[in-house]
Amino acid sequence: MTGGPADDAPTPGSRAPDALLSRAGVRGDPNRDQHFLVDDRVLDRLPDYATEIDADTSHVLEIGGGTGALTDRLLAVADRVTVIERDPDLTAFLREEFATEIDADRLTVIGGDALEVDLPDFSLSVSNLPYGISSEIAFRLLSRDRPLILMFQREFAERMAAAPATDEYGRLSVTAGHYADVEVVETVPKEAFSPPPAVESAVVRARPRSPDYEVPDDDFFLDFVTAVFTQRRKTMRNAVRNTAHISGLDEPDAVVEAADEDLMGRRAGKVTPAEFAELARLAWEVGEPR
Ligand SMILES: C[S@@+](CC[C@H](N)C(=O)[O-])C[C@H]1O[C@@H](n2cnc3c(N)ncnc32)[C@H](O)[C@@H]1O
Fold first, then answer.
1. pTM for the complete prediction?
2. Where along the chain is S-adenosyl-L-methionine bound (predicted)?
3. Which of 32, 102, 253, 288 has its CA at a distance of 20 to 30 angstroms from the CA of residue 132?
């Protein structure tokens, strides 16, 4: 993990982020999740995190194109890029600024909400996400089983990548880890953005994988984990009993009785994903899920 902007020089020939901001004539509105990356070195490293794992760059998806500083870097490594941007002024600007790439069929700009529009069949996503929709968009992307390089608020990124029994480990770590190997590859200071956000950011790299455990049903497993973590201060015994309504279990007591006693005496933060999976299998068998 690198510690923030440092070392290498910006890529020659790429569009300067401050020039893009001034051509677009925007300042960035935090109420609309607009914090534009203005640090060339961070912008240059984002595609590198994908190429260094040999990710397929035939069709790169960017959520939240903004003024196109990252789009420009992605076009340098990808055959084709699709950008989804909600702000109509910014989509108009992107279409004008990148008219040549659009005409050459190398760039598609979709105007709309990334949570609502149909996502294309992308091979990789590299995005500086709108933080207001971090969780929803992250899981929309994770479920596509493609490599992802995503900028989040630092705390969210660290929770996503956390290992069992650490302070950050929780629902997000288990559910994201169900789809991918997740790592924080860089922390990014506020000053790398214009306007600066209130908190630090971090870049996450997610590589799709099949989990090394089996679950009876993906949705049931994810709901079960979520339900247990909503009561993370309780022992598993009490959490499983109390959260039955969320996970849809009709017979939570039967699950508690059949489960390993040591496991039931722990808190959710000390339960590994594989142990959650084993418990979900048991719950599926004896808990009479609806
Ligand atoms: C953090 S900025 C990143 C902009 C640019 N990619 C960069 O790195 O400078 C997030 C962008 O997402 C856009 N945005 C916010 N909510 C969105 C949504 N629901 N769907 C699509 N774009 C959204 C904002 O208008 C903004 O341009």
1. 0.93
2. 35, 37, 64, 85, 113, 128
3. 102
